[in-house]
Amino acid sequence: MNIRVVALAAIVGVVALSSSTLAAQAAPRAVDRSNMDTTCAPCTDFYRFVNGKWLDTATIPASYPGIGVGREVYDRSLDVLHEILEQAAKDKSAAPNSNTQKLGAFYGACLDSAKAEKLDAAPMAAELERIAAITTPALLQAEFARLQADGVDIAFGVGTEPDFKNTKLTVAAVGQGGLGLPDREYYLNDDSASVKLRDAYRAHVARTLELLGDTPAKAADAAKRVLALETSLAKAALPLEEQRDPKNIYHPMSVDSLARIAHGVSWTTYFASVGMTPKSVIVVSPAYMTAVAGLMTSVPLATWRDYLRWKVTDAASPYISSRFVNERFAFRSILTGTKSLPPRWKRCMTATDESLGEALGAAYVAKEFPPEAKARALAMVGNLEAALRDRISTLDWMSEATRKEALAKLAAFRVKIGYPDRFRDYSTLRIPAGASYYQSAMLANEFEFRRQMAKADKPTDLNEWGMTPQTVDAYNNALNNEIVFPAAILQPPFFDASADDASNYGAMGAIIGHEITHGYDDQGRQFDASGTLRDWWTKEDAAKYDEAAGRIRDQYSAYIVADTFHVNGKLTLGENIADFGGLKIAYAAFEKAMTGKSRAPVDGFTPEQRFFIAYANAWRTKIRPEAMILQSRTDPHSPGEWRVIGAISNLPEFAQAFGCKAGDKMVRGEAVRATIW
Ligand SMILES: [Zn+2]
């Protein structure tokens, strides 16, 4: 239920998993051969060589879209989180309005399935009544603001984000939104699979409206009009690939200017009703706002009322009776291939995590995150930064002018590890004992919405984290020039105090390198040391960079993920550049750390070989075909197999470690190899 403007999500480069620690004097960790297929030559298919047996035998749990190391690590954390929440729910002595009381009340409200069944659709009654009473464009606009505060995704998004050209200041922003299918292409493609999926979606919208009491004929007619309206929104939306360029999603203007390009909406009134009087607004896509404002006056109010009934019910479905929960899951399962819902306690845990993430996170790190892990991770980040500094200092394709800026940016990186210095203050959020699950979720959504709106025209809070400590992931936020590693990623096999350099640098080192390199990917390189959107590249250097990036784009576009779906080389470019660069500098840091140490093989593998094995192990993933197609269409990360093969095949260091020859599948020749760092 994050309230996040599209632009921010597009700029924050997130690695989809991972980590491991630098141990000063640790024993070499044995290579786990039980996952490997050693009948496959490493130079022919390294992903299969490392993960082949696991790929052949691992089973995906019915409620998961896929499995892999990140999921395994998260599942271990679940036990800790589960225990925290069970205790909080039982704790009758928790101080009123303390975080423990709120965690217990929220989680407990969710567990009460009998109450959810009894209430059925009743918790949404007030919203549905208001929607039924929309008889003027002014009332429609007012309801938009009300529902957005409840976390309902409708027509356009409103939020706040650092001003790209003055990131010390956070400002208001409006972006795209309101689609029920995963992306605009799902509405616009006319291949048979897309048509079939749209039919299934329309039937799902109709069935959901029938659950509210519509007759089948009325529901079918409403669903048809809802799909047509969403298709109009999709047509106006900026494609995902185009959102990658920060210049395309940064259009600062006054509220008056927004009113000129998007008339039909009274923007001053609108902002007042979401709790803002912004001095200026960043518009993600002016053309989109023009289109939405036009639709708000040209589309009949009856259609808007049906659209809002659908959106409200879809958003409420996880929090109400099982008729709604199951209908929503049935459609989601078409997209992800999952066979069953997770057990209720797990869904309740995820929902509590989404609504009270830092309250849960504070309890989590008190149990799980030893201070020494932070020190070790910091040391490793320092070594990775030094490796990139070496590379930038000696790159023969980069001019001195660009080099100076690149090094200044590296020197200014802010590093966050484990958890925030100050956890979020939830004191103004009340989750009363006895509140229904739906009511609890809406209170948390409104709290988050007000928190976001309150940031407008204020200094950017550099202490804030974009992920909770219990998230198994990491990110680079170019606007703050920072890299962030939550506590939960600093666990084996990513980060292991008892392991040696080879496995730690191959897994966690590559992830740290990945996040650092994001600062110089196709988006990141457009921001300077202060996080400002500013072109600091000479024309010649930018052209050389683009040439190498173009090679990476084309290489990945050639990979087939499932059926006829290819990796989208343009959408995944930033992540692929970060994987490739991250692995390269992790290897350089590893080599430096190995100076003077024994290179004797362990379990038949040299330290260099074990470095690459650790990398390929960290990205082993098995995904249902449906989820794989969904990922390839919407996720800026390439699937695990290509994260491994794409990166290593460009690295002569890999070929050298395994004695691969020119012409081997895992080796790209010098003429076609991509090299940036
Ligand atoms: Zn990333």
Explain this structure to me?
- By secondary structure, the protein is an alpha+beta fold.
- The protein folds into 2 domains: 14-80 and 369-420 and 465-658, Collagenase (Catalytic Domain); 122-319, Neutral endopeptidase, domain 2, CATH 1.10.1380.
- 53% of the residues lie in helices and 8% in strands.
- The chain has 28 helices and 13 strands.
- The strands form 4 sheets. Strands 3, 4, 5, 6 and 8 form a 5-stranded mixed β-sheet that branches.
- Strand 11 and strand 12 (565-566) form a beta hairpin.
- Helix 19 (371-394) runs antiparallel to helix 20 (400-412) and helix 24 crosses helix 27.
- The longest helix is centred in the middle third of the chain and has 24 residues, at 371-394.
- The chain is globular, with a radius of gyration of 25 Å.
- The chain binds zinc ion.
- Zinc ion binds next to strand 1, helix 22 and helix 24.
What's the helix and strand layout?
Elements: H1 6-11, E1 13-15, H2 46-57, E2 66-68, H3 69-90, H4 99-111, H5 113-119, H6 125-132, H7 137-149, E3 156-163, E4 166-176, H8 185-188, H9 192-211, H10 216-236, H11 240-243, E5 251-253, H12 255-261, H13 267-273, E6 281-283, H14 286-298, H15 301-316, H16 322-336, H17 344-355, H18 357-368, H19 371-394, H20 400-412, E7 414-418, H21 437-453, E8 458-459, E9 474-477, E10 482-486, H22 501-518, H23 539-557, E11 560-562, E12 565-566, H24 573-593, H25 607-618, E13 621-623, H26 625-634, H27 640-648, H28 652-658
Parallel strand pairs: 4-6, 7-10
Antiparallel strand pairs: 1-9, 2-13, 3-4, 4-8, 5-6, 9-10, 11-12
Helix pairs in contact: 3-4, 3-18, 4-17, 4-21, 6-15, 7-13, 9-10, 9-16, 10-14, 10-15, 17-18, 19-20, 19-22, 19-24, 22-24, 22-25, 24-27
The protein binds zinc ion (ZN).
